[in-house]
Amino acid sequence: MSLINASIDSAIAIAERRSGKFGAEFYAGRTNAILERAFLAFKTSSWMIVLSGFVEPVFYLLSFGFGLGALIGGVTDGAGNSVSYAAYIAPALLATSAMNGAIYDSTWNVFFKMHFGKLYQTMLATSLGTLDVALGEIGWALLRGLAYAMGFMVIMAPLGLIPSWWGILAIPGAVLVAFGFASIGMGITSYLKNFQQMNWVNFFMLPMFLFSGTFYPLSIYPDWLRMIIEALPLWQAIQLERDLTLGTVGWSTLAHVAYFAVMIVGGLYFTTKRLSALFLR
User: Fold this and answer.
1) How many C-beta atoms surround the C-beta of residue 10 within 10 A?
2) Alpha-carbon distance 104 to 53, whole Å?
3) Nearest-CA neighbor of 134 among 233, 264, 21, 15?
4) What is the pLDDT of residues 43-94, one digit of tens each?
5) Domain residues of the chain, as ranges?
6) DSSP letter, residue 163
7) Reduced to 3 DSSP states, what percent helix, strand and coil does the chain have, rounded to the nearest 5?
């Protein structure tokens, strides 16, 4: 009984502390509670599921970069310098790895918690706000994307696929990419009602992966199609990572960063409003 009373007193104290502050109805300053719960759940999860999103880009790098790459020549970076095919596709696969980690956690995990575990209803019955939940879940997805990106970089570096010192910033770049995809992914998932609709996520991600300049430049496409692809987030992510790992940093690099900054802010706002509409009626 004393434990219940302590929990109630803690919730009241948090509510009083936030009372009257801007955004108090959405944010209690307790994002760490969501991250702690995610970590405890992670320790009991299957390592095979966690590793699946990381292994796939590695296989693509080995089979395409070093297998098919032996038959391909004349590949250049953004400055017109000749690079190996493996060095050309490696940053694209790094961006894909960050995307995979963020998307898997912010879609399938969120879907299960929302429709089967009913966890968000329970969380929002406490002092937590919808922004706490959004930041916690997106933050955990971001950490998974970061882990995938770091693991992939550990493979890239010994293979000589990071020719520029700018490549050190590829990890923060991957975090930015993961943050953007996780922010949007959770909001979109809140609209999906069944497993058939969840397959739409893969239906969108696979073509985006294949046609966003991962394996070849967009110059082969007609102008109208190229402009559509350049508006996609994965193309922006790939170009950001290529600029950093190959050292072709310029104003366009800042444009890619700005793209994801807008994506993050918009995704957080969209997700918070959506969770409020669903669970705080």
Assistant:
1) 12
2) 8
3) 264
4) 776 566 666 667 788 888 888 888 877 777 767 776 677 888 888 889 999 9
5) 26-279
6) -
7) 75, 0, 20
